[in-house]
Design a protein that fits this description.
Layout lengths: L9 E3 L5 E3 L3 E2 L6 H10 L3 E3 L7 H11 L7 E6 L6 H15 L4 E6 L6 H16 L3 E7 L3 H10 L7 E5 L7 H9 L3 E5 L11 H10 L3 H11 L3 E2 L6 H6 L10 H8 L16
Helix pairs in contact: 1-2, 2-3, 3-4
Length: 276
């Protein structure tokens, strides 16, 4: 069964912008060529962060691709040690300079860890940066339900456009997903493959064989069919291409149910969503 989704499919955010549904996660990537090849292959969304220490590499890869700035969505994130109004403003300017960009499409607060006062100051700085044209959209990452409620209480007219969290069939975060959707906050899924911890599950292989797809492709497709924005990570050119080969099949309801039943309630990476 063919899919109505395409590599260039987008999702409309609560601020009116449209973000590509599939992005390239670049944690640990230090290859501008990998980013260039991904963009030339058809990716239109790159997800970096201050903590990744590769904003400069992302900028180099983007420039080498020959793409127009308005055709590529580039996200970065404010790291924990850069929280606070002044520090956020300062380091955002530094990130723009490193990447060689005039603006970021999206800037996220990487985690709520530094505490309530700091994270609210940081978000205020992002709202002001948006007014100044330095960023197009402001969001959060690794926010739990109580963090979302806290933010909306403080900024009722400026809700975050996105909450980027670990999501996969093995860790579905239904409480956070429900809270975000209640307020039209889009979900971005990182670690959508569960870091490969579950790829040997026979039911996953059975689904893959049915569609002639790898377990990774099945898992990324699951995220897309949940209406998540999904961020598979790779610096390998062939894997980058394979991770985008998702649009000639659609998982059946039965297969979705099988994948949903793989929930473990545990993640494979850090989990700041419980931070006070």
């Amino acid at each position: 069964m063919a899919s109505s989704l395409r590599l260039n499919s987008t999702l409309k955010l609560n601020d009116g912008l449209s973000i590509p549904r599939l992005g390239l996660g670049v944690y640990l990537t230090q290859s501008a060529d990998a980013i260039k090849h991904a963009l030339q292959f058809g990716y239109r969304h790159i997800d970096t962060a201050q903590w990744y220490e590769n904003e400069e590499v992302v900028g180099e890869g983007f420039k080498a691709s020959g793409m127009k700035r308005e055709d590529v969505w580039i996200t970065t994130k404010i790291w924990d040690t850069n929280h606070g109004y002044n520090q956020t403003t300062k380091t955002l300017d530094e990130s723009l300079k490193k990447a060689g960009l005039d603006f970021f499409d999206l800037v996220l607060i990487h985690s709520p860890n530094p505490g309530k006062e700091k994270r609210l100051e940081t978000y205020r700085a992002l709202i002001d940066a948006k007014k100044q044209g330095k960023i197009k959209s402001a969001g959060v990452s690794n926010y739990g339900v109580h963090h979302i409620k806290e933010l909306l209480a403080q900024f009722p007219n400026d809700p975050p456009s996105i909450n980027q969290i670990e999501i996969s069939p093995f860790f579905q975060r239904k409480d956070i997903v429900t809270e975000c959707r209640k307020h039209n906050i889009a979900l971005q899924a990182y670690s959508p493959l569960g870091k490969g911890a579950f790829v040997d599950r026979p039911e996953l292989h059975k689904i893959g064989e049915k569609y002639k797809k790898s377990p990774a492709q099945v898992l990324i497709r699951w995220s897309l069919q949940q209406d998540f924005i999904v961020l598979p990570k790779s610096s390998n050119e062939e894997r980058i291409k394979a991770n985008a080969d998702l649009y000639d099949f659609e998982l059946s309801k039965q297969d979705i149910d099988t994948l949903n039943a793989m929930e473990t309630g545990k993640g494979v990476t850090w989990d700041p969503t419980k931070a006070p």
